[in-house]
Design goal:
6-stranded mixed β-sheet, homodimer, alpha+beta, 6 helices, about 15% helix
Chain lengths: ~325, ~325
């Protein structure tokens, strides 16, 4: 099943209206009476009724327009190794066996086609990720219990303000100012409708274009050191996770022959964030050549099935000055 | 106005039923039709009706049983200085002018009389705090705009797992496993009904008993380096804050003559967490003498007005083994 949260101008505006979307993302049926995805996750009986209407990703909120929890892991540890190296920071060896995870803001996500509004001096970057929405997860859940609690899978653009990160991480308390509102794909999909879902990992190519040019064609199914079952179990070690918790994979990142990857223009898989490409440039040329995002830049993140059809719809965001 | 969220066994169970509570916390009137506090914060028209019913704090959830955001500051910088000293960690001087804040879990708070369930090996501690609930705060809000957005004030027990903190903070990504679900006072109060509210700070003695003995009698109105206006503005620098955001003050902590405080038993104001008392013991005796919480221990946190009446009701929690 594929689901979305549709914008309206009615009473349900803030959380959107839950809709079931056709497999090819051309039509949807909205809930009657109107309800939101959080209510569905909370156990409300729901039904969709009436004739199908055209599905328009530009009228979608993120599947959960706001959520009670967003925990973002760093499952592709290669990304962490590269970004730390770019900052001149050490990466402890424990990062390869103890998941890195932070509590992210979840009070208001951007819609998949909302602009990213910010100050370019902040070093605006995107991060292409896979994310899941869980049902209730009890404290101490095993990896298997955690996997069984996954309700939906979607894509994420975890917007990051690179120039604010070093100062915040030095304080040890994680991200507040350096991780503003992020966005998710228009559509979330149940795992039984995802042929690429195996063992808590989504296999498939995450595609990222910047200003219409290929920037990343990274494989989400390889180099994922911790699967979603392990990430969720890590989060639930000392507390229950409420229904509607979003768990992110962290930036998808591929190695190449055991080392850093190559840009798409050079025949590589490219990168799911600008920071990684800048790191490679620093290694190769002594300094980064790719700038962070500025006003007017556009980022598009999507994934296709074997027949070339978009699975989740696209995150497609323009950068605007604050 | 004083408000609470009442437990029921009906459809609204998860978020409780919004109620307006009498000033002396003896009676309340519940909303008709039933709604939750988040809906009220989202702008729903509400009314309470019918005869008043007895107010029972044991039937209360935390005012927001779950929230879209909880950001916890460390406004009483003396606490940070002491806890870091106890861990043998340095505190940068910048902590005195740049607020320390972390994104906390908000997907399911404990009710004020719910047990704290955990493993004593984790080093279970309480932290007595002041917290506010905001309306919508726009990105880039000034301190004055931030102060105007405060809707309610309440007390918080920010449960902390001391033995898990050093490992998580060393990773730089903040708290996930080391900060399990926290609890808030049964009642939240508007600032115009709080005589002790001045300049974004709540003046009054936060009272903490452990197993019926006074542990803390700390003054929330002094030694607060950053007021709530500054904390909210810090959080809103790069993003909007959704209505229903909770901002915590961090552990209330008083200096004594410019240095560390004294235990209540020694005539001092005591402490709002065990970690601080252990730090003082380490300074005085070379090692801590007070253990962290174990099964059967009870923590009570409350505040009284000038006539000795409880303002917010009490957080009153028993520790239970997982």
């Amino acid at each position: 099943m594929k689901v979305a949260s549709i914008r309206t101008n009615g009473a349900a505006e803030r959380d959107g209206i839950f809709a079931v979307v056709d497999d090819d993302l051309t039509a949807c049926r909205i809930s009657h009476p109107h309800c939101g995805l959080q209510s569905v996750l909370d156990g409300m009986d729901w039904q969709v009724a009436g004739p199908p209407v055209a599905f328009d990703p530009a009228r979608c909120f993120s599947p959960l327009p706001r959520a009670y929890q967003f925990l973002d892991g760093s499952a592709y540890v290669n990304h962490v190794a590269l970004v730390r190296r770019a900052r001149g920071a050490q990466m402890p060896d424990s990062f390869w066996h103890d998941p890195l995870m932070y509590q992210g803001g979840s009070d208001g996500f951007l819609a998949p086609t909302d602009p990213i509004v910010g100050n370019p001096d902040w070093g605006i970057d995107f991060e292409g990720e896979i994310a899941v929405i869980t049902g209730h997860v009890p404290m101490g859940a095993s990896r298997e219990q955690a996997l069984a609690a996954i309700r939906f899978v979607m894509l994420c653009n975890d917007v990051s303000l690179r120039n604010l990160i070093p100062g915040e991480l030095a304080k040890g308390f994680g991200f507040v100012q350096s991780k503003p509102a992020c966005a998710f794909s228009p559509v979330a999909v149940t795992v039984d409708d995802l042929p690429g879902w195996r063992d808590g990992t989504l296999h498939g190519t995450l595609k990222i274009d910047v200003n219409g040019e290929p920037f990343g064609r990274v494989d989400a199914g390889v180099d994922m050191t911790f699967d979603f079952g392990q990430l969720i179990a890590h989060a639930a070690k000392t507390r229950n996770l409420g229904a509607g918790t979003i768990i992110g994979s962290g930036t998808v990142s591929n190695k190449l022959d055991g080392g850093p990857g190559k840009a798409v223009a050079q025949g590589g898989a490219g990168y799911a964030c600008i920071a990684e490409q800048r790191m490679i440039e620093t290694i190769e040329h002594g300094s980064p050549r790719t700038r962070f995002l500025d006003a007017g830049d556009r980022v598009r993140i999507w994934m296709e099935d074997d027949t070339g059809r978009s699975i989740f719809g696209a995150i497609d965001q323009l950068v605007q000055l604050i």
